[in-house]
Every structure is written in structure tokens, then in C-alpha cells.
Amino acid sequence: MEGAGYRDNDVLLHWAPVEEAGDSTQIIFSKKDSSGGDSCTSEEEPTFDPGYEPDWAVISTVRPQPRHSEPTRGAEPSSPPGSWAFSVSLGELKSIRRSKPGLSWAYLVLVTQAGGSLPALHFHRGGTRALLRVLSRYLLLASSPQDSRLYLVFPHDSSALSNSFHHLQLFDQDSSNVVSRFLQDPYSTTFSSFSRVTNFFRGALQPQPEGASSDLPPPPDDEPEPGFEVISCVELGPRPTVERGPPVTEEEWTRHVGPEGRLQQVPELKNRIFSGGLSPGLRREAWKFLLGYLSWEGTAEEHKAHVRKKTDEYFRMKLQWKSVSPEQERRNSLLHGYRSLIERDVSRTDRNNKFYEGPENPGLGLLNDILLTYCMYHFDLGYVQGMSDLLSPILYVIQNEVDAFWCFCGFMELVQGNFEESQETMKRQLGCLLLLLRVLDPPLCDFLDSQDSGSLCFCFRWLLIWFKREFPFLDVLRLWEVLWTGLPGPNLHLLVACAILDMERDTLMLSGFGSNEILKHINELTMKLSVEDVLTRAEALHRQLTACPELPHNVQEILGLAPPAEPHSPSPTASPLPLSPTRALPSPPPPADTAPQPDSSLEILPEEEDDGADS
User: Fold this and answer.
1) Concatenated DSSP letters of 226-279
2) Residue 521 and which of 131, 409, 482, 613 are 20 to 30 A apart at CA?
């Protein structure tokens, strides 16, 4: 190996995968001598056999045997082994990222001081812990307080390490404030602050337990235990062709209305709405049923009585905040804060829509009043930025203050968890999305992981407000009414996200995008997507998954095909459970076995560890 370009006494890491028929893959550590000659392999350092197969969609079995499969989509037809080899000076390393649990194999991504990522080092038969132990002889590996999977690299130089401590504080404020700021402005926070450092929001999504001890055990082991079967690649059948139908017309709806005004053949009607949506003239009436304001089983007289009751209830709640005097409001910081935030948001919500344009538009006043009344209806949740985005299309369609309020409440019943400060619901949804995507497209997941984008945080805005800012306004109406049917099962919005990523997979993978470019590309999809194409693909993905006889049980749970095997505790991270076989769902580890990370402390990877750590 040539030593040119490296400082004297630098330690070099050389990674050189070889052909399966040849000798096992070697990781060679070499130290450049002061004369600048070629580096030589140190006899003291061990070699490892990680079974590196860069083009391989892996299924870890009881006794895994390396094999080559056909090149995955987006990969080069035949990549020579030399294209995966590299050498790097340990002095040029900035950080090392470990893989997340649930992949059935482990990998490391080395990031250089220049900000670039080297090819991921995959370990299908163990070895990550051993490699980290060897690196710790030459470097200090400090676990980030915000991300236990990220090791920051420092030289064995106390002054340099002291000067670099500020790099450990990836946040300029605590995680809860970051989440609050994200909720107050989910758009600019996602695409400006998050682009500053890829790990910015991941730390907020993974708040660390308070009061954690600074005496930490070694990081949790991620690599699969030998002899335990984990299915990480499911053989899906061909993706079926889906054709969407025409929208439901007013005439068709009328045919479903019985003598007393009771709707008949409701399942068939919902199926039609799912497959084609609604004609614009029908939405004002049909949305009241889809959002639970009116009962599908009620008669016309029952609906009238219900509306009278709900009208009285609405104005009683509205009077509660209307009767608060300015003097009282000065002593009610919560109400004053809600009012200020709502006024600011309403003034910039869908102002390019004719229904809301102009300074004295009455639609803006209705938005303001409905959102303030919702604060009286749901004291615990109140108002969070993003809710105005959800109300605007409903008011546009319903065009009645009371009816729009109760329809909005019905929508919020579906998505109110998205706006909770704990963000547990959003973390759980991101985890389910990742799980679906890993079944549908493992190569895309591997690519995103290698580019430090495997947490799918760039999808946060999609899920938070149900793609409101990704499609043109009228397309959002069609998308939402299809999702409100609850067909073909729960969590169709996650398959909508998978469909968008599936449409963009070749652009992402073949363009060589890094994490910032991925984020930028996703942001630039706004208003460029076809809702019919996305819905068609999402339905096709659902049919493809449900046709698979070996679909993992936790994927079946997401799609509503199977009841949960046992109650799940709130997921502490955005990562899903490992894919599980249909016949058995592995139980999550007990909380006591999980080593919490401190809010602000430095963990130095111990040099001596148990030899069984790799398993």
C-alpha cells in the first residue's frame, strides 16, 4: 500500500474484499514508517472474516453460507472486488456509525473529516466489536450523548480531545425543545436545521432517559446470535396491476340512500370511494360520514337531531373563549399563546387559494374561531402548528363553521397523536414505515442506511400532516377521502409513503446522493407528485404484501392482517423490531436489559471486552 499523502506514523486501515473462491476477506492495519516507504501488515494485529458481500440481499439462517445473488436494482451489473476496497488514515476519521438492531447483520460506516462517507463495512458473520476494539488502541471512540450508535473519533491526545468536546453537543438546546420547535415549524426545521447535521433530529426522536448513570456497560449488541434464525429478506411475488375507478357521483350516492334517508350497502359504497374518490359536488355531504360526524346507520331525522345537538355544544365551547376579556387574557398565558400562534398560522395558511385569499377574507376568521374552539374542546392538546393545514381543506369543502369543526375533530381523532409532545406516535409510525420499506425494498433501505438516512426522518412531514404539503390542494382532497375509508386496511398512509419512495428509488440510488442531497430531493418533490399514480402504486404494494404467504407477523400487524401477538410498549426509537417469521414473533427484550445512554456524558469504548460480544 502506498503511503504517499499520509502523515508520518499514521495508522492506515485497509479494507479489501476478495472473491468468494479466494481467501477470506482481510482487514489489514498498517503503520506508515517515517521513511515514507510502503506500509506493511502488522503481525500483531488480528485479521477478520466478515463475509463481505456488497451486492447481497441477505437472509441470515441457522448456519449462513455466503452466496451471490443477482445484482439488485440500482446496483452495477458486476462490480469488481477492487471497487469496494479502500485505504484511509485513522487520523482522517471523524466518526463511525454502527448499524441499528433488526437487520440480522451488522455494518459500520466510516465518516471522514471532510464529511464524506466511505463504503459501508458489512459483517454478516460478526466482527464489528472486534474491529472497534482494535481501533480503540489507536483512537478514542466517544459515544455521542444524543445517538448511542454514533462514535465520535478523537486522537490519543488529551488537549485535542478537550478542544473537541463541543463536537459532542449536536444540539444547541435540549431534545424536548428541539421537538417543540419542530412542531411549531415542522417545515423549516426539517429542511434547514436537519440539513445542518444529519443526526440533528434523530437525537430529538430518541430522547435519553433522565437520571441515567454515567457508569455505562458496553453498547448493546446488534449482531445476530449464531443459531438464531432472523428473516430479513422476504420473497414477494410479482406486483399486481391496479386500475383505479371513476369518482363516486351524486347519482350513485343517491342510489344508496334508503326510504328514511339511511345509507344502504355501506361497505360497497366505501369500496367505491376507496377506488375512485368522490366527485366535488358530493364531498360536502360524504365527508361528514367519512369523518364520523354523521353515522352511516342513522336516518335523516336522526342526523338532523344530532346536528342540532352538536351546534349547541359548539357554540357553548366557543363562548368560553369569546367571553374572556383582554384583562383576563393577560393573566392567562396559555390562552394568549394559543391565540397568538393561531393568528400567525391562519394568516399564512393556503393564502393562494381563492377561498382564503385577501386581507379581510371571512374564511380566515372561521379558521381562527374553529381552532380556538378546538383548544376549549381538547384542553390537553390545545393547538400545535400544523393543525391549520388539516382544517383548511375541511372548511373549504364543508363551508359551514359548525359542521367543519366537528369534521375536523373527527380527523384529529385519527392523527392527534402526531401532535403530542412526546412524539411517541410519530416515532412508532416511522418505525413501521421503515419495517414496511425493508420488506418491500431491502436494497433501498441499505442505500439509505449507508447514507445516514435510514431513520427516514425526511418522511416526518409526510406523516405529520398526511402529505398536505406534498400534493396540489385539490389532489389532497382526493387523497384524504381515500385514506378516510380505512380501506384496504389500517396504515394505508404508510404505504403511500412507500409508494413515493418506490417511485423515486432509481433517482436516489443511481444519482449517488448523500444525506443532504436526499433531503433536498425529497423536499423538491412538493407539488410534483400525481395523486392517482401514488394511490395506484400504494394499492399495488398492499396487494403484493398481502399475497405473500410468509409475510412477517409484525408486518401483518401493521396492515391489519393479524392481531398484535402481545401488547407492545411504546417504541423508544424510530427503529422497528426485527422482521419476524409468520409463525413466531420474538418478544422485545425486557427494559432492564437495555443500557440507557446519559443525557450529557462521554463514553470511552473500553479496550477489553468479552469475546462473546459479537454474538
Assistant:
1) TT--B-------PPPP----PPBPHHHHHTTB-TTS-B-SHHHHHHHHHHH-B-
2) 482
**535 pLDDT higher than 80:** yes
What count of Cα atoms within 13 Å lies in the side-chain half-sphere of residue 465?
Answer: 23
The confidence score (pLDDT) of residue 579 equals 46
In sequence order, which residues have a C-beta less than 8 Å from that of residue 511 and are 6 or more positions away? 517
Residues 113, 89: Cα–Cα separation, whole Å: 11
d(CA 200, CA 144): 12
- The answer to whether the pTM exceeds 0.70 is no
Answer yes or no: are the C-beta atoms of 441 and 500 closer than 8 Å. Answer: no
Q: What is the pLDDT of residue 406?
A: 98
Look up cell 357553548; give the residue. 316
Element (H, E) at 30: strand 26-31
CB 370 within 8 A of CB 395: yes
Amino acid at 13: L
d(CA 389, CA 470): 12
**Which one-letter amino acid corresponds to residue 73?**
R
DSSP, collapsed to helix, strand or coil, labels residue 314 as helix
**How does DSSP assign 327-387, residue by residue?**
HHHHT-HHHHHHHHHHHHHHTTSSTTSTTT-STT-HHHHHHHHHHHHHHHH-TTT---TTH
Question: CA-based Rg of the chain, rounded to a whole angstrom?
Answer: 28
